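We emphasize that the prediction below concerns an isolated chain of 276 residues; any contacts that depend on oligomerization or on bound cofactors are therefore not represented. The input was used exactly as deposited, without trimming of termini.
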Amino acid sequence: MIFAMSFTHVPHGLRFVHFRHAKYSINEPFCQAKLTISSPLPKYQKTTYIGLNMQSQPFGGDKKVGQSLLHGPEQVLIQAAAPRVPAWIKSHHLTLASIPISLLIILCSYLGKESIEWLWAVSGLIALQWITDSLDGAVGRLRKEGLIRWGYYMDHLLDFFFLASILIGYMLLLPDKSKWIHFFVLAIFGGFMVNSFLAFAATNKFRVSYLGFGPTEARLVFILINTLIILFGKTYLAFSLPYILGFALLGLIVVIYKTQKETWEMDMEARQNLDK
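Result of the prediction step, given as a token string:
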């Protein structure tokens, strides 16, 4: 039996192992390998292995693609503030700060059942989380702390906890007949996060801003909602959430369509490279 293996670079996408009529997925991306096996047995004469080597491209989770509406001024503030963070505050301290902030958001929302003025504190905590969430990566890169994969994992896991804490707070404030809508709000906003992670796994491009709307703009929307609730009462929240849900669902549909189109094109490009 004779084995012949050749390696060629594949710019994008995932490939498959082909054994005549069988197809097995390979999860080692970005480097194509072909293994041809010649055998005296006819059914094994043409066997091709096509795999991918994950080490051929660097980890891209710390490099976000796409820009939101406020990306420019936001980056100016971050670059100016990062060198001024005290040396005893490390990047992982800033990342983990989302835990107490999320718990305090739930507590202040609970207190808001008796006095709606507590929502000012919730808005302040949302702004504080923007500061810590924006600076952790900038501080880590500036000081070369090296927590790239840990930062990617913990930062976005705690972002989900932060989002959940805001929705739990609103659930405490809403009338019982309107609380069902929170399930759909969490499902749709969670859908954006799931799309980001799956798209990153398929393309090695990490995108958190869609159609000019990103985490910073989402925080501002929550602060605006809090302000309107304080000024006009809790009924505004019950009135506004279905509209927010509708726009978010429409945006998610557009994002999913664009993501699947991009991955499809990557697969077709890779297939053409294989045929050459």
